[in-house]
Write a structure and sequence with these properties.
The complex is a heterodimer of chains A (176) and B (580). Chain A contains five helices and seven strands; from the N terminus they run E-E-E-H-H-E-E-H-E-H-E-H. With 176 residues, chain A is α/β, with parallel strands linked by helices. In chain A, helix 3 packs across helix 4 and helix 4 crosses helix 5. Classes of the chains: A alpha/beta (176), B alpha/beta (580).
């Protein structure tokens, strides 16, 4: 199922795709402060993309909540990965931190001339942010950004799980 | 008087507790009369008789105090009277973590022995969920949960690796049966059976998949494996995370529904069976429109209906059966596995106590993933070791992958001369396949001896006998073999010769295998070399479950059977399961 909305010249599209297999300029990885890729999607990046991504992250060191750092994507189809450190596990001010993190991602994308960008449902799943809260914050932040001057041509949100797809789809469809 | 400040996470835990209370949990929290009946039923208590903190009633009281302080009127009004107590700091939450994750496997043996019906395991699981909600959990639980949330299975097996492994097993079965119809179907629609498995089978024990396929083939079954939603295990049961439990169960159900399968059959996994068959529909809020059964029942049905024939003389030796806590005590699967075992073996010896009273393998409740508690887990396994030893059996059969790992660890730790296996292996071994059997034998004899030709394998092991055994087997099968007697030499040879694969012993003098493995994964030039860990040291199972570094491509327990060694090394080399 694909749901999309156009903001000026940019399309915001919800897709049921594996983010690590996306052919984009950059995709977003919901990172830890120690910038270790670890398991889950991090494991997929290591397995499919090779060890170079972690080596780049090791050189960067650490990042704080609300920050985003860019590396190459190794052997993946994507050119780059934006490692975004967002709020986790019901921590205080989750909503504002998630918004700040999303803004940091968009800024990193613009700075690096990214035209095709893919997001996961940020913080949903393991990190415990409610899918609807993630959808609300991300869609509001991204759409606000796309209404201004931007180099982004296509923005994807990869929602593989129905528990994510449902609220993201409903909120995206409801946007004017 | 100013109230004591409370940490953000502690407040979240208290709030969440209120949302998780239901009739069952409140009943268990309120009903305990501290009679002590549960005490002797817990394997942790039996191993630590002088430490009251292992007693189920004591452990339960840690949560009960919290419940009383915030949700029971007696504790709110007269906390000193009923010993009600709150939590205030993250350190107290960490302490609670060590109790609910480290001192209980949620085996429910105390639950069935409580005259008041207190189900400690149920609210212990709930307590785990409260902590997971605020990010407090053992590192291994976090690693496995994240894999299952984001990749879709507990071991982070990527889709291409799953498909390649199943295809490889399919080719093996076709060769052995001498019939293309024996191939493993993938995503076939409108079938009778959709067969789901434990990712451990893909990662470290794929012969169980081939054996199941042989049985389906012999029975003439209409079946398929699914390309998605194939992991029937569910770490939500262990972590207490109902959201994860629901998401995982839904993926499996959705796929069976899409394929229009009539029966969802689950391979032998205790917690997977309980999660998918019993708990999942509630967690996921799913209206199930197909049947669900354990492969144990499926295999038994085939024999009873005459769809497959078996020759029990093909499984010589004495066998005993270990009841998995989730499969047996929680789901009532007591007689079916015994009936099946008696049909495929000649010498079955009951273990005492058994069925609902059996002791935990001590690896349940996610304990295998919590490396920090391994010493106390193995200590608590003494009662299980005594049980096993008393049977005099050579083989212990269990219908649970978790139990298989837990039992393997304690067998090594307590130096028992026993092996662990599953019913699917025994049924496949006993299978009588008309006509095709002769073809299979010919095919096996005609199989090229040089299965590993062209590969260079570096054997790193300090035991001369093991080096010689591995060298002989691998060279006989065509590999070029290099050997190193310690870790430092192993690393040096790896850097110089860049082998295709390293077999790595973990317990070696000097630089041990764990350190060698870490170096292999961190040093740029060594990262591409595949590693199969070969160990007799249970403490290092954390390399499979609990790590930030990439998992080893293979993991074999000593002693190693020749066929298992070759199967696993070929899988690593030919399937190319890791691509770094």
């Amino acid at each position: 199922m694909t749901v999309e909305k156009k903001f000026n010249e940019t399309v915001l599209r919800l897709v049921d795709e594996d983010i690590t297999l996306m052919d984009v300029d950059a995709f977003v990885f919901y990172a830890r402060t120690d910038l270790q890729l670890g398991t889950g999607i991090g494991n997929a990046i290591t397995m499919r993309g090779g060890p170079g991504v972690q080596e780049e992250l090791d050189k960067i060191g650490t990042a704080q909540v609300g920050q985003a750092v860019l590396t190459s994507a190794g052997k993946l189809k994507a050119k780059n990965i934006i490692h975004a450190v967002g709020p986790t596990f019901q921590e205080a001010d989750t909503e504002s931190k998630l918004q700040k993190t999303t803004v940091a991602v968009l800024a990193a994308a613009e700075k690096n001339q990214v035209q095709k960008l893919a997001f996961p449902p940020m913080g949903s799943g393991f990190y415990g942010i409610a899918p609807d809260q993630s959808a609300q914050v991300m869609l509001a932040t991204i759409s606000a950004h796309l209404k201004n001057k931007t180099g982004l041509k296509e923005v994807f949100i990869c929602a593989r799980d129905p528990r994510d797809m449902k609220p993201f789809s409903a909120r995206l469809q409801a946007m004017s | 008087m100013a109230s004591r400040p409370r940490s953000y996470k502690a407040q979240k835990v208290i709030d969440r507790l209120g949302q998780k209370l239901n009739r069952q949990v409140v009943g268990s929290l309120a009903a305990c009369v501290h009679c002590g009946m549960c005490t002797e039923s817990c394997h942790y208590v039996l191993a630590n008789p002088d430490d009251p903190t292992f007693a189920p009633a004591y452990k339960a009281d840690r949560l009960r105090k919290l419940f009383k302080r915030h949700y029971d009127w007696t504790g709110r009004v007269l906390p000193w009277w009923v010993n009600a107590q709150s939590v205030y700091t993250d350190e107290e939450l960490q302490e609670l973590k060590d109790i609910v994750f480290g001192k209980c496997t949620n085996c429910r043996r105390c639950s069935v022995n409580c005259p008041m019906g207190v189900d400690f395991a149920t609210f212990n699981r709930m307590a785990r969920g409260l902590l997971v909600h605020v990010g407090i959990m053992p590192e291994g639980v976090a690693a496995v949960s994240k894999d299952q949330w984001e990749i879709g299975n507990q071991m982070g097996v990527l889709k291409e690796d799953y498909l390649e492994t199943v295809e490889w097993m399919s080719d093996e079965v076709v060769d052995e049966m001498g019939d293309d119809k024996a191939a493993i179907p993938m995503d076939k629609k409108d079938v009778n059976i959709v067969y789901t498995i434990n990712p451990r089978e893909i990662k470290y024990d794929p012969r169980t998949i081939a054996n199941a396929a042989k049985i389906f083939y012999a029975a003439g079954e209409s079946w398929t494996m699914p390309s998605e939603g194939w992991d029937m295990t569910n770490f939500g049961l262990f972590s207490g995370d109902d959201d994860l439990g629901g998401a995982v169960a839904r993926r499996v159900y959705d796929k069976v529904h899409d394929l229009n399968g009539k029966i969802l059959v689950m391979s032998e996994c205790g917690h997977g069976y309980r999660s998918t068959r019993c708990e999942g529909p509630n967690w996921a809020g799913y209206d199930i429109d197909f049947e669900m059964e354990s492969s144990v029942v499926t295999m038994l049905r085939y024999i009873k209906e005459g769809r497959i024939r078996v020759d029990k003389s093909k499984n010589p030796g004495a066998f005993t059966y270990h009841d998995s806590c989730n499969f047996a005590r929680s789901c009532g699967m007591f007689e079916e596995p015994r009936e099946l075992l008696n049909l495929v073996t000649n010498d079955f010896r009951e273990m005492y106590p058994n069925r609902a009273e059996n002791y935990c393998c001590t690896g349940g409740g996610g304990a295998m993933s919590m490396a920090e508690y391994t010493p106390q887990r193995l200590k608590s396994a003494k009662v299980k070791a005594d049980q096993l030893r008393a049977t005099g059996a050579k083989y212990v059969v269990t219908s649970c992958h978790n139990c298989e790992d837990g039992l393997n660890d304690l067998i090594k730790h307590y130096k028992l001369d026993m092996e662990v296996t599953q019913l699917v292996n025994l049924v496949a071994e006993a299978l009588i396949v008309d006509k095709k059997e002769a073809v299979a034998e010919v095919a096996a004899k005609a199989a090229p001896a040089a299965e590993l030709a062209g590969y260079t394998i570096l054997v790193v092991d300090d035991e001369p006998d093991m080096r010689e055994f591995l060298t002989t087997v691998l060279e006989d099968n065509g590999a070029t073999v290099l050997t190193a007697a310690d870790g430092d030499l192993g690393l040096e040879m790896a850097r110089t010769h860049k082998p295709d694969l390293m077999t790595l012993d973990l317990s070696m003098p000097g630089t041990d295998g764990a350190k060698v493995y870490e170096t292999m994964r961190k040093e740029h030039d060594l990262k591409g070399i595949k590693v199969c860990v070969v160990t007799g040291k249970p403490e290092l199972r954390k390399l499979i479950y609990d790590r930030d570094i990439q998992r080893p491509e293979g993991y074999l327990d000593k002693p190693i059977a020749e066929d298992s060694l070759l199967l696993n090394l070929r899988k690593i080399l030919e399937v190319g399961s890791e691509k770094s």
